[in-house]
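Fold this sequence, please.
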Amino acid sequence: MRTIFAAVIALGVLVGAAGRARAAPDAEAIAQARLDQVRQDPRQASDPAAIAAIARDAEGFPEGPARVGARLLVATAWLERLHRSDDGIAEMRRVVDDPAADAVTSRFAEKQVVDALVEQGRIDAAVVEAHARADRLDPRFVVQVDRLVRRRSVRRLAAAVLGLFVVLASMALVGAARRGAFASATRAFRGFAPLAAVFVVFVGGAGGGLAASYETGSAAPFLLLGSVALPLVLLARAWAAVGSAATRARALRAAVCAGAALAAAFVVLDMLGVSYLQGFGL
């Protein structure tokens, strides 16, 4: 009897296991069909209610490709089309941590998380994320994220230098006006303006033309730099006309003007894109 009873129990276990084995693929197929319903319909893929519904449904999907695909679909929609960045980042992290996600999908999702943090301006959070999950990111991408911190520091320094230049030059001109010496600044401005214009045209035209002659070159940096340099050069000349002639004052003025020129060049390149500053480690 005991032998028969044990055999019956074993048979029941086998039947139950077989039933679960059949149920699992069925559940996965149902989940996949639900995912395909949204993914293959452009209207649902961009509909906030449909995306929210598939996000809720995904939590009940069995562990497998359908759940990973649903979470990825939801995260992408929230990040790119529906402007729910925080929810999108949280959902993308679920893709990264999903045990059913393959290595390629997990790495893609992690990069999307870091990119979204950068896009939000959360540079420090992006750096922390990149280093915490460095094993799932390309090392070159981690280096690129680190550069954003340096670039932000240089951007702040450039703004401070430009601000200092404008403030000091304006103070000198206001002081000259109060003591009745502003006419010298006007004469210097008028006399120097044609030469400054020629210089700016040369920088923008010749430099831009030379850059554009290369297949991957662009005249934009030179043209924009020329337009930014003109007011700086004219203001510097007017400042020099009314400023102190003492050696120390002239040295300080030259240093501030040179710093302003470099800061303006950085601002121009920073506005035009990442690639222009990579050669400088930024």
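The mean pLDDT is 77. The chain has twelve helices and no strands.
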